[in-house]
Amino acid sequence: MLDKIYTGYPRFKLKDELGIPKEKIITFPWIQAPYMKRGVLGLDKFEWLNKEWSHLGAQTFDKYVANKIHNKGVLIALSSNGLNAGKKMQALGGKYICDRGSSHIIYQNEILNEEYKRWGFQWEGIDKRIIDKEQQEYEQADYITIPSDFVMNSFIEKGVKKSKLVKIPYGARLDRFKKIGEPEKNKFRVLWVGGVSLRKGFMYALNAFEAFKHRNKEFVVIGAMTSEIKSILGTRQVKNVIFKGNVPNAQLLEYYSYSDVFLLTSLEEGLAMVQGEAMACGCPIIATPNTGSQDLISNGKEGFIVPIRDERAILDCFQKLMDNPGLRAEMSEIAINKVQFLGGWDTYGTNFKALIDKFA
Question: Looking at the record's lineage, which domain of life comes first (predicted)?
Fold first, then answer.
């Protein structure tokens, strides 16, 4: 259905995007690509530069795409990237869909500010220019696509009309993720896949794991660690935790399959796709509602849904799984059936097509 795909990523980064005709992909990497490499260049430590660079990238890319639009159609743009292009499309008689993958930007900014303070850090905050632009996009767009009830509720809480919101949950790569084995007996392995950060609520997960009484427990942590978490961990001894850093996506199914439970305790995001990956591999989930988990699992069936910042609730879930070995096997089977029923990315595409067909 797509006429063109505009991206700020350099073309070599798109080599794994199978199934998309290369002639449809138009890259504008001149700002985004250097921004992605700023750490290698030693420039990521300058917060002011990061903000200016990020803002310049979004604005320049948006205006570039706007200049390329000449015919009526439907523009789908990631939030903070589509205001100018969206207006241009609407001026030609077309429609503009703003796609937002996380909670409402004001909600996001507020809860992260609150969380950083809880741990004694200063939250720099989202660039006010980005916040202003996104709010204009929410107002300008014909529809806002969001991935979960959690995100929808954050928008409604901030005054956006429900009639403008269209929930289209993300899918999982069912062709890539499948169960290939069982966890080791006499060991309790907890798995974390995602950013190791305050936003993801990592410290609540770690504290619950450390309080869990098991003679052979293991916490495998996959993902990049932020400076705040490094600072906190530098003041304490951590045992039975294996920090793997980044792991190739193709290797994740082994970790999912051989872990007793997958843990994700985020304070905010949209719909963490790693949850669907874990389910496809038969790994039960412990997650907060703020991960979008309620759109994937029912509490007590494919896993557990726990309140944010609730270490006790996480610990209780660990205990239930340990005390009842059959529960894990039961949840594993239900999780596989559920994620297959949800349909993966094909269902996402079908639902998005239904929205676009309204404009036909």
Answer: Bacteria
pTM: 0.92
Give 288's strand partners: none
Q: Give the model confidence (pLDDT) of 212-239 as tens digits.
A: 999 999 999 999 999 999 999 999 999 9
144: its two tokens: 């806002």
- DSSP per-residue codes, 259-300: -SEEEE--SS-S--HHHHHHHHTT--EEE-GGGTGGGT--BT
Encoding tokens for residue 99? 């796609």
- Phi and psi at residue 261, to the nearest 5°: -155, 150
Distance of CA 259 to the CA centre of its chain: 21
Q: Is the pLDDT of residue 351 over 90?
A: yes
H or E stretch at 73: none
Residue with the two structure tokens 């872990």: 259
For residue 244, the Cα-to-chain-centroid distance in whole angstroms is: 19
Name the H helices within 74-127. Answer: 83-91, 105-118
Q: What is the mean pLDDT of residues 155-176?
A: 93
What CA–CA distance (Å, rounded) separates 147 from 269? 10
Structural contact between residues 99 and 46, judged by C-beta atoms closer than 8 angstroms: no
Nearest to 126 by CA among 80, 166, 170, 91: 80
CA 267/CA 261 separation, integer angstroms: 19
Please calculate the CA angle 295-299-302 and round it to the nearest 5 degrees: 80
Which domains occur in the chain, in start order?
5-170+345-357 (3.40.50), 188-342 (3.40.50.2000)
